[in-house]
Design a protein that fits this description.
The structure holds two protein chains of two kinds. Chain A is mainly α. Helix content of chain A is 67%, strand content 0%. Classes of the chains: A mainly alpha, B alpha/beta.
């Protein structure tokens, strides 16, 4: 049971990793940045002035040899972590990262218990 | 009374979902200034509006407060806050730095000629990328920097009378 669960988790993570590799770094960063002045749009989707400027900055930074992490750090320092769609993995955000898995586990347990009770 | 495990989990899941949605209702992180206020300004290098020379962080004096104002001639709220900037110009303890944002030099010069030039230093950010250094969302915006070059306050939108009084109070504090 424990092993099966681990295998499912590993499969989910590896699928996500391989999909991301196919997208260019620039597009990947644009898609992971929130257009703060827009309603629910990413920098990639938005045509706002703000998004256009952020695109230039990201391209410049990639050109200067900065990596994805450095670019996110620079922008979150200026605009807060809110600008990044995928929150950083740290102590404060750990609950955010683990809560879907906790809810999934509890949900699974709930279904399991329900069916077992019905069978009895 | 025996409370079943099933009911506890169900109640927890429902409460958890409600709590998340409830908390999210009160979150508005747009136009937040909390990440930038209190920090040292980064090194920057921005071109002067009317010459090819550049102005750097090291050129900022250490005996005055600085108000960096990001403006453009095409921006109506910038016109609205202009009288406030003209009043702030009179303060000896404050140096005004204007960064002209995504504008044409000719239009920018015309704007200052028509309404008066409140700035001690006039710079230009043609494509808006230098202003990202100050966490700018748009125009107008102003950033108050203390003598140690720390960001003390950031104003998003045109400076109001209240903002004017806040700036005066801060720069004249001993």
């Amino acid at each position: 049971m424990k092993n099966n669960f681990l295998i499912i988790l590993i499969c989910l993570f590896s699928f996500e990793l391989s999909a991301n590799e196919n997208i260019s770094l620039e597009t990947k960063i644009f898609k992971n940045l929130r257009c703060i002045i827009c309603q629910g749009q990413s920098i990639a989707e938005s045509n706002s002035d703000f998004a256009q400027t952020i695109k230039i900055v990201v391209r410049d930074k990639i050109g200067q040899g900065e990596n994805e992490k450095e670019i996110y750090e620079f922008l979150s320092e200026k605009y807060g972590e809110w600008i990044i769609y995928r929150p950083k993995f740290n102590f404060v955000n750990s609950f955010l990262w683990f809560s879907p898995y906790i809810v999934l586990l509890l949900g699974g347990l709930l279904i399991f218990k329900y069916f077992r009770k019905r069978k009895q | 009374m025996k409370i079943s495990f099933l009911k506890i989990i169900s109640a927890f899941l429902i409460l958890f979902t409600i709590l998340i949605f409830f908390l999210a209702l009160f979150v508005d992180k747009r136009y937040s200034t909390e990440t930038i206020v209190g920090k040292q300004i980064d090194n920057f290098e921005i071109k002067f509006l009317l010459s090819n020379r550049t102005f750097k962080k090291n050129d900022l004096s250490k005996d005055q407060y600085h108000l960096i104002n990001i403006w453009a001639s095409w921006c109506l709220p910038c016109k609205k806050e202009h009288p406030t900037l003209m009043n702030l110009k009179k303060e000896k303890n404050l140096s005004l730095i204007g960064i002209n944002f995504k504008d044409k030099k000719l239009n920018a010069s015309g704007f200052l000629k028509e309404l008066g030039n409140p700035y001690d230093i006039s710079l230009i950010d043609k494509n808006g990328t230098s202003s990202i250094m100050f966490g700018v969302y748009g125009v107008p915006e102003s950033i108050l920097i203390d003598k140690k070059h720390n960001i003390v306050l950031k104003f998003i939108g045109p400076l109001s009378t209240k903002d004017y009084k806040t700036i005066l109070k801060l720069i004249n504090e001993k």
